[in-house]
Amino acid sequence: MTEDVHGSRESRSSEAAMLAVAEGILRRLPPRLQNLLIRLFTGWLGRVVLQGIREFIRLEMFDRSMTIAAQFFTSVFPILILFTTWASGSDSERLADALSLPDQTRSLLEDAIEGAEGSAFGIAGALLVLASATSLSRALIRAFAAIWAVPKPKSTLGSAWRWLAAVLVLALAVILARATTEPVHVLPPREMLPLVVALALDGSVALFVPWVLLGRAVHPRLLAPGAMLFALLMLTVRPATAAWLPHALEVSADRYGSIGVAFTYLACLYTASLCFLATAVLGHVVANDRGRMGQWIRRERGASDAARALDIP
């Protein structure tokens, strides 16, 4: 209790110091520019951006993004190999295409799948892979609980299905992100349908994962702004990644071998994790903003108490 009070005092003192510095800088600017900046930063967009940046830094999302990227790499990829093994290895080429693997690394994937087939991925092996993959879910729970300031759900056997469901959804999203866009190219309009499919997929994943991991402590309506922001952001990030990743993987494989491929994937996953958490933070700020949009999202009339928004029936 004393530590919380002390921490809140330090936070208020640091904010007061920052405001004093900002006021000193603002006074030195021309009056017109002062008015423009005041309108910008006191308006809805300015409030959301500034609060989002402050929350992102306060919650140490850069470090959390790296942790989630590493957990994703060690959790989701083994599940994808497990799925491919259960399909008798017939989808190994499709998995390699979905992961944009270079030729030097495709042989490693085929060897891993053949080795798994030879050892007959039994029930015990599959359970071990799935159990270890839930470390990704626990890392995401810590991040989302910090963002929404809610208690972490208790770790019980009854909640284990939530961890597994989130990991399986993320694993399937890796494949579906590429597979779902292929059939719609034959339908008009060819340019729009892949975008709609990608928007729906990314938005659904960004909405479902925090909702299920937090044990429905946060209403989906509050999670919707962050999910929409993530889906819109990925419309730009995914094409850029698709253009950069194959070449980067080939260069890394030529220079450093398999370890270079692993580090390149980690860089890509770090970017995706950063986008995932950044949009979640912005979504939280938007949903709890005191303005009309925040009140509409929370379905409040004239109330601006953000805590009430977490317990919507």
Structural descriptors:
313 residues; 2 domains; disordered N terminus
Written description of the protein model:
The chain is mostly helical. The chain has two domains: 1-42; 60-311, no CATH class. Helices cover 78% and strands 0% of the residues. It is built from twelve helices and no strands. It has helices at residues 2-27, 31-42, 44-58, 61-86, 92-98, 103-118, 123-148, 160-179, 192-213, 220-256, 258-287, 292-298. Helix 3 crosses helix 11 (258-287) and helix 4 (61-86) runs antiparallel to helix 7. The longest helix has 37 residues, at 220-256. The two termini are 31 Å apart. The model is unreliable at 1-8 and 302-313 (pLDDT under 50).
Indicate the topology:
Blueprint: H1 2-27, H2 31-42, H3 44-58, H4 61-86, H5 92-98, H6 103-118, H7 123-148, H8 160-179, H9 192-213, H10 220-256, H11 258-287, H12 292-298
Helix pairs in contact: 2-3, 3-11, 4-6, 4-7, 4-8, 4-11, 7-8, 7-11, 8-9, 9-10, 10-11
Short description:
The chain has 313 residues and is an all-alpha fold. The protein has twelve helices and no strands.
Radius of gyration: 23 Å
Shape: globular
**SS element count, helices:** 12
Strand content: under 5%
Task: Quickly give the structural class.
Answer: mainly alpha
